[in-house]
Design goal:
By secondary structure, the chain is of the alpha/beta class. It has one domain: Alkaline Phosphatase, subunit A. It has 14 helices and 15 strands. Strand 11 and strand 12 form a beta hairpin. Helix 4 packs across helix 13 and helix 11 packs parallel to helix 13. The protein is globular and about 55 Å long.
Length: 388
């Protein structure tokens, strides 16, 4: 009887604790799931030709930093297969890898990962714009602001969420989203667009930060369609109560439109600008072990990369850097068909992993971003590129 009980214990342990980490799920992206996210080949080859042109500027005046949250090499390749072999990200002439661990964990979260980019120091998981001792540190966006550059944040999640928050706020924990929202009022950021409106106007402290933003001369926008009516120099686009919808549920081209708007607005600053754009929900597809979710978010992010590269190649003074804070899902591509745009995948976890993530660069000083680097190095490479 004891022997049978022991065998049953081993079986149950394997079923409930081991098996999920060996292979959480297997699913597919089929062509009809990505048709709306694909781009025409003609657009791709135009951008490919742009990025081959020799850059005259010795240093960038502008930096556009794109973060694909949870985007490892498998996520990139899944997007490429779903798009039948082409991605704008493939036109980037310089590539490398970033090591992602935080100060207290082998596997980082988005807060520590983004804070490493923003302050140049490893910090603990959950930290927003503070070092490993909880001390606030000036971020790269705040430095740009202090030097007279235009600044912006754009995200497909709440703008108070971990990644965008890490560039503008200083809080002990990423869950303090009302406190993070209040930190926006302590800056002169020019443009921010994402979700999270409820953290500005449905607060426990009774403050209406939307009115306070208006008092600081911001155009407060409640939908992506309303951006075109904005006439002011400062724009707060809070387009969802919490998070915008996933692409697969109909978000549409919000990220492309918001990014185009942000670039057009910020380029008016003759000193230059710093703009961070996040493709947030690639990460959520990984957490859900959902291949169609990953690929549609990846293609939306890549379309945005295309818009950024068009701008940068014509502008000639813009450094574009693309990376991820970490990989999510332990995603492996186990089958598929490039000509048909079909992706088959499996996962090892519902959380993050510790693998290195890709780094891509284009523009003046792009060569700084080749090879294997720490995530904190990106902060210092930005400063070096700008000559700070």
């Amino acid at each position: 009887m004891d022997k049978i009980f022991t065998i049953m214990k081993k079986y149950l342990f394997s079923l409930f604790f081991v098996a999920p980490f060996v292979c959480w799920s297997q699913n597919y992206t089929k062509p009809e799931q990505t048709d709306k996210a694909r781009f025409e080949n003609q657009e791709f080859y135009e951008v490919k030709n742009y990025t081959k042109k020799k850059i005259k500027a010795q240093r960038p005046k502008n930096i556009i930093f794109l973060i694909g949250d949870g985007m490892g090499t498998s996520q990139v390749y899944a997007g490429l297969v779903a798009n039948k072999g082409d991605l704008y990200i493939c036109t980037m002439p310089v590539s490398g890898f970033s090591k992602t661990n935080s100060s207290d964990k082998f596997i980082t979260d988005s807060a520590a990962g983004a804070t490493a980019f923003s302050i140049g120091e490893k910090t603990y998981n959950g930290a927003i714009g503070v070092d490993k001792n909880g001390v606030p540190k000036q971020t790269i966006l705040e430095m740009a602001e202090a030097k007279g550059l235009g600044t912006g944040l754009i995200s497909t999640c709440a703008i108070t969420h971990a990644t965008p928050a890490s560039f503008i706020a200083h809080q002990q924990n990423r869950g303090m989203q009302e406190e993070i929202a209040a930190d926006f009022l302590k800056t002169d950021i020019d443009v921010f667009i994402g979700g999270g409106r409820k953290y500005f106007n449905q607060r426990k402290d009774g403050r209406d930060l939307l009115r306070e933003l208006e008092a600081k001369d911001y155009d407060v926008i409640a939908s992506i369609d309303s951006l075109r009516f904005s006439k002011g120099d400062k724009v707060a686009g809070l387009i969802a109560e919490e998070h915008p919808e996933p692409m697969i549920l109909g978000r549409g081209d919000m990220l492309v439109r918001a990014s185009r708007f942000g670039m057009d607005k910020l380029k008016k600053n003759k000193t230059g600008f710093f703009l961070m754009i996040e493709g947030s929900q690639i990460d959520w597809g990984g957490h859900d072990n959902n291949v169609p979710y990953i690929t549609t978010e990846m293609l939306d992010f890549d379309k945005t990369i295309g818009e950024v590269l068009k701008f940068a190649s014509k502008n000639g003074e813009t450094l574009v850097v693309i990376t991820a804070d970490h990989e999510t899902g332990g995603f492996a591509i186990t089958g598929g068909h490039i000509e048909k745009g079909i992706v088959e995948g499996k996962f090892t976890t519902g959380g993050h992993t510790a693998v290195m993530v890709p780094v891509y660069a284009y523009g003046p000083k792009a060569e700084l971003f080749s090879g294997i680097m720490e995530n904190t190095d990106i902060f210092y490479k930005f400063k070096e590129a700008l000559g700070w």
